[in-house]
Every structure is written in structure tokens, then in C-alpha cells.
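Try this one yourself first.
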């Protein structure tokens, strides 16, 4: 048993450097966000649940609520996506000025077809975005999102560890701020309302 535990410890140590090479730790990105140490956000080229190409430029003139997660997430992602959906409902007609985006950090399983079954359960206007693993990594890095696959060998399965902030981006595409996980729909709506562009 001891030997087994040691082997596991060695294995995880061996696999650590490759993870560290490709990205920063969860603590590091959270620190950057909390203290505003680096710019947040950036350009992306992804595809939505209807296989339509989407770039950040498509959403100029709208506020963006950007959330990174994955459809197999058992509780945090669904709760936050539900809160985003409810916040949009609270905003009523003026919610037209906001585009909610769900960017998967599990593009291997979250194909457009899979997203198509998932995103409408939270809000009809929620767009699910996926793409090449490298495109996902680069947009996640730009938003200071940490994510890493965690293998469950017993079940021949994996989950994805990830930071879960809701990002609010301005109509010019610039970062305004973030909501921590579990922010209530009322609070999201209250903050978003102050930033909405005038209705046309
Ligand atoms: Ni999640």
C-alpha cells in the first residue's frame, strides 16, 4: 500500500512540470485578478453551438458576461450559468445590450453539438463557444483563467479543475471587472444595469 502511494506521489510529481510549463497556477492567476496586476481579456476566434465562427469583434457595442467552464461540471458551472440567466431575465428588455458567453475549457468533450444541448437550459441567448485546444488555452490565458485536467483512473474518466469568475467586459471590449463564483442574479443585474448602452 505504501509503495503504491509513493508511486502515485512520484507520478504526480513527474507530471507537474508539464502542467507548470503550459500555464500558471490557480493561486497565481487569482492573485493577478484580485489585484488587477495584468490586463484581462483579449481577442478570440471560436465557434458557437450552431457552428458559427465567432470572434470578440462580433460583440462590440454590447456588454459581455464571459464565463469559462465545462458542461460536465457537477455544480459550480451550472449554478453560475443559472445565475447569469436569471440576471438577464431581471434586466428585461435591456438585456438585449448584454451578450452572455460560455467558453468551454473542455473542448475535447464540449463539441458544438454537445453545447447545443446544454446552453439553452440556462438562457435562450447564452452562446456556448468551443474551438481548438490551443485557441481555448490562449483565450483562457488572456482572461487569467486556470484550468487543468484531473484524471480519474478508476473510472477511466476526467474532470477539469478551473477557476470560476464571471467577467464583465465593456461595450468597447475592455475589461470592467469580475464577479466571484456564487454571485446572486440580483447583484449581477444591478452592476450590469449601470453599464448598459442606451437602447436603440
Ligand atoms: Ni465548473
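Now uncover the answer:
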Amino acid at each position: 500500500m505504501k509503495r503504491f502511494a509513493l508511486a502515485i506521489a512520484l507520478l504526480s510529481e513527474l507530471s507537474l512540470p508539464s502542467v507548470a510549463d503550459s500555464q500558471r497556477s490557480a493561486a497565481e492567476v487569482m492573485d493577478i485578478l484580485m489585484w488587477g496586476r495584468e490586463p484581462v481579456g483579449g481577442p478570440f476566434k471560436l465557434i458557437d453551438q450552431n457552428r458559427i465562427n465567432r470572434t470578440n469583434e462580433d460583440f462590440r457595442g454590447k456588454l459581455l458576461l464571459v464565463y469559462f467552464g465545462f458542461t460536465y461540471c457537477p455544480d459550480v458551472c451550472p449554478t453560475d450559468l443559472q445565475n447569469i440567466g436569471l440576471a438577464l431575465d431581471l434586466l428585461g428588455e435591456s438585456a438585449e445590450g448584454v451578450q452572455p458567453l460560455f467558453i468551454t475549457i473542455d473542448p475535447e468533450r464540449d463539441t458544438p453539438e454537445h453545447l447545443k444541448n446544454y446552453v439553452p437550459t440556462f438562457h435562450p441567448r447564452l452562446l456556448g463557444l468551443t474551438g481548438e485546444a490551443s485557441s481555448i488555452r490562449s483565450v483562457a490565458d488572456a482572461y487569467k483563467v486556470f484550468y487543468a485536467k484531473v484524471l480519474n483512473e478508476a473510472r477511466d474518466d476526467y474532470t477539469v479543475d478551473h477557476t470560476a469568475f464571471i467577467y464583465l467586459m465593456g461595450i468597447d471590449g475592455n475589461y470592467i471587472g469580475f464577479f466571484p463564483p456564487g454571485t446572486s442574479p440580483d447583484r449581477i443585474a444591478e452592476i450590469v444595469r449601470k453599464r448598459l448602452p442606451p437602447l436603440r
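Discussion: Residues 1-21 have pLDDT under 50 and may be disordered. The longest strand covers residues 63-69.
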